[in-house]
């Protein structure tokens, strides 16, 4: 259940990027980024992993109670609204920045240096 919350936050960060919206292989990028972020959180030390997992379960539960589905199954606009509402939770900003940084790191691997305009 925590993985769906992390995937939902990852997708919210991913949907806000113009580069991602312009790509034709969005589904492949989405799956790759979500898998990278989930595995990255699993590989963290125990004292970081457990609080993030507990917070993810709380976020998934809140989403299921308020929206009727899990965060990764929401439409992009509903997901953005839900993430904006989560900002009132303590330490959500830190979790969002961690996940956002991991999303940007993985998306950077998808950018080809040979394409025109990527490095300008």
H/E element sequence = HHHHHH
Our Rg estimate from Cα atoms comes to 15 Å
Main sheet summary: none
Number of domains: 1
Q: Please, could you describe this protein's structure?
A:
The protein has one domain (2-109). The model has no long low-confidence stretch (mean pLDDT 87). The protein is globular. The protein is mainly alpha-helical. Helices cover 72% and strands 0% of the residues. The chain is built from six helices and no strands. Helix 1 crosses helix 5 (76-86) and helix 1 crosses helix 6 (92-110).
Tag the structure with descriptive keywords.
120 residues, mainly alpha, globular
Write the layout of secondary structure elements.
Elements: H1 2-15, H2 18-21, H3 26-42, H4 46-67, H5 76-86, H6 92-110
Helix pairs in contact: 1-3, 1-4, 1-5, 1-6, 3-6
């Amino acid at each position: 259940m925590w993985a769906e919350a992390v995937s939902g936050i990852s997708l919210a960060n991913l949907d806000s990027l113009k580069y991602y919206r312009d790509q034709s292989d969005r589904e492949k990028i989405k799956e790759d980024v979500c898998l990278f972020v989930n595995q990255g959180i699993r590989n963290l030390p125990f004292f970081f992993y457990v609080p993030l997992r507990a917070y993810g379960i709380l976020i998934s539960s809140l989403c299921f109670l308020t929206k009727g589905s899990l965060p990764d199954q929401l439409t992009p606009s509903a997901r953005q609204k839900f993430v904006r509402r989560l900002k009132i939770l303590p330490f959500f900003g830190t979790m969002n920045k961690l996940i956002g940084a991991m999303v940007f790191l993985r998306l950077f691997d998808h950018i080809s240096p040979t394409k025109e305009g990527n490095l300008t």
